[in-house]
Design goal:
The structure is a single chain. This protein is globular. The strands form two sheets. The protein has a four-stranded antiparallel beta sheet, with helices on both faces. A four-stranded antiparallel beta sheet has the order 6-7-5-8. A hairpin with a 3-residue loop joins strand 2 and strand 3. By secondary structure, it is α+β, with helices and mostly antiparallel strands. It has six helices and eight strands, in the order βαββαβαβαββαβα.
């Protein structure tokens, strides 16, 4: 189990790939994702021990320079974040549906972690940038009160960083909607 996750979001694909290389050469971390995303950005998400993630992300930030759009280091990441990033989650059941949307991929991961830690919810998907014009969103399920608590926790993070687009709570989603989300 990894204790920390870190990410850099770079506005140049070439510089992003170079920064990813330097991140991996600086510290022993594993890559959760290193890819181009809309609109012409490059993200690198690493995970591992806290100190290694801190060193890796610091190196990426330094190399990214003026191309850095956003970054973070999140120690003690919630275990539900990684499966949500890779969309490999299968909920035990369905309840209310929560959606948080952000202008920043890095901010969305931090907001998703806060939502998962604040309430008894199950992560569905943490979509980062692909086909979204650089935005990101997080979907999750649980009972209505838990979903509302998750929304408030995630919303607070995105608002604090000035990057919230919108949030929604759907108390009783259509079964046909679920089939398109899962």
């Amino acid at each position: 189990m990894f204790r920390a996750i870190g990410m850099i979001e770079v506005t140049s694909i070439a510089r992003g790939i170079y920064a990813a290389d330097q991140m991996l050469k600086t510290a022993y971390v594993d890559v959760a994702s290193a890819t181009s995303v809309c609109p012409g950005k490059y993200i690198t998400i690493v995970h591992g021990d806290v100190a290694a993630v801190e060193s890796s992300v610091s190196a990426g930030v330094a190399v990214a320079g003026e191309y850095l759009a956003d970054s973070f280091i999140l120690p003690n990441v919630h275990q539900g974040v990684f499966p949500a990033i890779t969309a490999t989650t299968v909920p035990e059941g369905t309840g209310a549906l929560g959606i948080i949307e952000s202008f920043s991929m890095a901010t969305m991961i931090i907001a998703a972690d806060a939502a998962l830690k604040a309430a008894d919810i199950q992560a569905l998907e943490l979509r980062l940038g692909r086909g979204l014009g650089g935005k990101a969103y997080f979907t999750f399920t649980g009972d209505v009160a838990a979903v509302e608590a998750g929304i408030e926790a995630g919303k607070a993070i995105a608002l604090e960083r000035g990057l919230l687009v919108d949030t929604e709570v759907i108390p009783s989603p259509s079964e046909r909607l679920w089939s398109s989300l899962l």
